[in-house]
Design goal:
The protein is an alpha+beta fold and 238 residues long. The protein is built from 8 helices and 4 strands.
C-alpha cells in the first residue's frame, strides 16, 4: 500500500449500471506525505469555524458508510459492494446511511452557495488552509447543483495559485467536466464496472500521469490502490 495517505473520503452517485466514487485524499488537501501546506492565520475566523464544523459532519457521514461497507460480507476483495446480494435489512441500512450523506450534502450546498454569492470563494488567506479545503470538499459534494460547481470552478481558477490547492482544483475540474458530459483530465473520478474500479471518461489516457504529476497528484494506479484499500477498511479515515 502506498505510504503517506492519512485519510480518504469517498462519495457515491447512482448512474445507469454503475456506481460512481470520487476518491479524495485528505492531508490538508489531496497530497502525499510531506506535501501538506503550511497553516495560515485566518482573516475570517467565524467563517473558518463554520466551514470546519460542516465538513466534520460531512466526513462523519461518509466514514459511517465506508466502515459499514468494509465490514459487510458482500464486499469484494477490491472493495466493491454487491448491492444486489444485500438482504433486506442490509439494504435498508445501506440506503439509510447514504440518505444521511445526501441530507448533509444538500444542507451544505445551500449554505455554501449563500457564502459564495455574498463574499466570493473562501481563500486560504481568509479561512486558513484546512477550512479552505473544507469549502472545496463540500463543493465536490454539491452534485445536485452542477451550475454552482461550474460557477465556483471559474472563481477558483481566477484566484492566485497560493490561495487554493492545485490538486483540489484538478479534482474539481474533473468533476465539473464529467457533469457537463465531457472527458475528465486528471482521472480523479472513478466508476465501478464489472466489479472493477476504473476512471470515468478520460481524455488522452496515455498521458494522464504526466498531467497528474504537474499538479502534485500520485499516479493513477496508485490512486486506484488507495481507493480499493479504503473500501476494504484498510485505511483509517480521520
Amino acid at each position: 500500500m502506498p505510504a503517506g495517505y492519512s485519510a480518504v473520503n469517498t462519495i457515491k452517485e447512482q448512474l445507469p449500471a454503475a456506481l460512481v466514487f470520487t476518491l479524495t485524499l485528505l492531508l490538508g488537501h489531496i497530497a502525499l506525505a510531506g506535501e501538506a501546506p503550511t497553516t495560515r492565520e485566518a482573516s475570517a475566523p467565524a467563517l473558518r469555524d463554520q466551514l470546519l464544523d460542516r465538513v466534520k459532519k460531512d466526513q462523519q457521514a461518509r466514514k459511517a458508510v465506508i466502515e459499514w461497507t468494509a465490514n459487510n460480507e458482500h464486499v469484494s476483495e477490491n472493495g466493491v459492494l454487491d448491492e444486489d446480494s444485500l438482504p433486506p435489512e442490509d439494504k435498508l441500512k445501506h440506503d439509510g446511511l447514504w440518505g444521511e450523506v445526501a441530507r448533509i450534502d444538500a444542507e451544505n450546498t445551500l449554505w455554501l452557495k449563500e457564502v459564495v454569492n455574498e463574499r466570493g470563494w473562501p481563500t486560504y488567506s481568509e479561512v486558513g488552509v484546512d477550512a479552505g479545503d473544507a469549502a472545496w470538499l463540500m463543493l465536490q459534494h454539491a452534485d445536485k447543483d452542477p451550475e454552482f460547481q461550474r460557477q465556483c470552478l471559474d472563481l477558483i481558477k481566477s484566484l492566485p495559485k497560493q490561495e487554493v490547492s492545485q490538486q483540489n482544483l484538478a479534482a474539481l475540474t474533473d468533476r465539473v467536466l464529467i457533469a457537463e458530459g465531457k472527458n475528465q483530465v486528471y482521472g480523479t473520478q472513478f466508476v465501478v464496472r464489472d466489479g472493477e474500479w476504473v476512471p470515468l471518461r478520460l481524455d488522452d489516457a496515455e498521458n494522464v500521469d504526466v498531467r497528474r504529476a504537474e499538479v502534485g497528484l500520485p499516479p493513477l494506479a496508485e490512486y486506484k490502490e488507495v481507493l480499493e484499500a479504503v473500501m476494504r477498511g484498510e485505511i483509517e479515515i480521520d
